[in-house]
Design brief:
heterodimer; A: 434 residues; eight-stranded parallel beta sheet; 12 helices; B: 249 residues; alpha/beta; Rossmann fold; six-stranded mixed beta sheet; 10 strands; 37% helix
Chain lengths: 434, 249
Amino acid sequence: MEFISKDKNEPDWMLAHRLRAFDHFNNMPMPTWGPDLSVLNFDEICFFAKAADKKGGFDSWEEVPQEIKYTFERLGIPEAERAVLAGVGAQYESEAIYHSLEKELSDLGVIFTDLDVAVHEHPELVKKYFMKCVPANDHKFAALHGAVWSGGTFLYIPKGVEVKKPLQSYFRMNAINMGQFEHTLIIIEDGATGHYIEGCSAPKYGSQALHAGCVEVFVGEGSKFRYSSVENWSRDTYNLNTKRAIIEKDATMEWVGGNMGSGVTMLYPCSILKGDGARADHLGIAFANEGQTQDTGAKIFHIGKNTSSKVTMKSLSKGGGTSIYRGELHVAKTADNAISQVECDALILDPISASDTIPNIKVNNQTATINHEARVGRLNEEDIFYLTSRGIPQEEAEAMIVNGFIDPIVRELPMEYAVEMNRLIELEMEGSVG
Amino acid sequence: MLEIKNLHVSIDDKPVLNGVDLKINSGEVHAMMGPNGAGKSTLTNVIMGHPKYTITQGDILFNGKSILDLEPHERSLMGLFLAFQHPKEIGGITLEEFLLAAYRAKQKHLHPDNPPVLVFRFKKMLKELMEKFKMEKKFASRYLNQGFSGGEKKKSEMLQMAVLKPSLAIMDETDSGLDVDALKAVCDGIQQVQRDSEKPMGVLMITHYQRILKHLEPDHVHVLKDGKIIQSGGKEFAHELEKNGYENL
């Protein structure tokens, strides 16, 4: 901890925070529910050096494995960008674009920068909010994150400011230091509006075995914020991310997420509907292919009066993969007239794959209206026959059905992400036919 | 054009067709009638290549070549079309998107060196076809058959047929569940496609009822019973059947 803190020249309070978090980490048990995490060996994970020295990538384009190059090629990512995405090279080509955006934002009083930079330049804001939404003693991986976090994004939109363009981490990815423990801190002040897109849909490959990032969003009174992410980590990764938002009076928080990669994913974006009239909307897709477990879902806490939440999750399982929807829905005594609607649809693409739904609903207020729907379907021979009988090859027909299934969510993604999401799905679908 | 020779088919080891022979020449209209469970729908599915059936004996030739080893999409590209009795509902893809994909696949097959048709050209073509069929414009932007009424589904099938311009159209009980007006509209559609096609389109119509035959006059009428064609005749045979039924055949 001291080494990381010193290396980053951090203020004392941050070092103290890291040390406290590390204490929590040592004293907390591993979670016993959900996917098996026993193979994780904390002594073998390199917490900082790799992220800083190798930046989770490769030293040269030649070192990048053929499989990754092929994926980039199929995604139609320009050569220059491919290198950056694979972690080669230090500069992002479009830095100029970013700078003009930066000017536009700073005129509005918006701060959009590296969290490491913000610790130095905006200590009062960071200190006030950092890990106040996800405290380090929340669970073992939050504690670990608090101790060794490094890199990430800081976004601050002041009172009443409306940022129309989606802000993308893509733009400020001047080096691939999207390490294993990046922290995203977002503060949306009262009446402000914004949309942030995290990660990029191209796969991130590295040697890391554990990814324990953290996203905190503070959604001020009457504000509106959308957080979108497409995560596609390499297959050997344990992706144990914590994402949470505190939503004040009459504010709206929207989560849009796609999970394709990783060996094991445990990710349940959480909305705490604190203020009266607060709203949360969760949209998500998970795709579990061979050897993958996608344990994803949503956590919602209704605390204020007249709060509402809506969860729409779609999952795909293929090649022996397992998709699980795990939901937590709590309605507090104080939350009069809470409304919640949860819909999860699973599509299982072959006989060897699986899907499960594990909802946990606790209602402590009789005025609540709760609706939970879960559907499981299989890729249907009759549907495929119908499409192929019109001259469409089987693989394409299957991809069509799958893309149609996730369409309601993909259409919420910004254009370029939607296109890439569809391409990624097609890539995953390849070779599914003997 | 289509020649079925001594076709034996089973599903889950249960025989359904027991030696069907049928020959359809270019431009001919054939009607296939018969009681429920006679194997009529099986026959249409097998011609189109549905994977759940096993062909135990016999052959199906299209333009002189056996098509038994071909995938359904390959049969479609050759010019076969099946109008489904119960068209599938597919969410998340619009009728227009689906038709574009199917049309492009067909064009790629016919003219492999040409670039794919531009979207706006296709839209124009589709719009004209839909006007001919008296279909509302918004029909094309709905998800494929999803929430369509029975009549709308059959119209959707006709539109698909018109886009793909097959040389042989197989219609599996296209008339069932339609009221008089819808039936007429669908039959007009079929005749429209027949008029528009460069080479005369052959039709194999599976039906329970006489009434569709009033709109689309068949050249040949067959009765399928217990997995075999037990009697065939000209169009007058259909009238005979109407009077006497096929119970006594």
